[in-house]
Fold this protein.
Amino acid sequence: MICSNCEYEYVDGVTVCADCGADLISKEEFEGSLLHPSDWVVVGTFAELYEAEMLKANLSGAGIDSLFFTKKDRNFPLSGSWETIKLLVKKKDANDALEIINDIKNRTPEENTGETTNENG
Ligand SMILES: [Zn+2]
């Protein structure tokens, strides 16, 4: 059982999320609500929710459907406040989305210019 709000997974028998109080749904239902999960690709990860929300709004303005996941500690071996937000778009929109994301990144004045070309040889 999964909370569609927090994405926490609960054992069978639990019907309400202990965190937010939402009704839990089955894993199939959860994945079903994504339409075709495998069609979605991650185009960026963020430490702050507002960044993801800003990009989502920008993509939406460009006619690109997007969604973001907060994974909390589910994928991390460390417990605690680790939180990574993943922004996903459909595969067919990935290139357009990346262009928009890069464009926004380049426009951000306070962006660190320490970005080096990172080539894996
Ligand atoms: Zn919840």
The CA atoms of residues 33 and 97 lie 22 Å apart. The radius of gyration is 17 Å. Residues 3, 5-6, 8, 17, 19-20, 22 surround zinc ion (CB under 6 Å). The beta strands are 40-46, 66-70, 85-90.
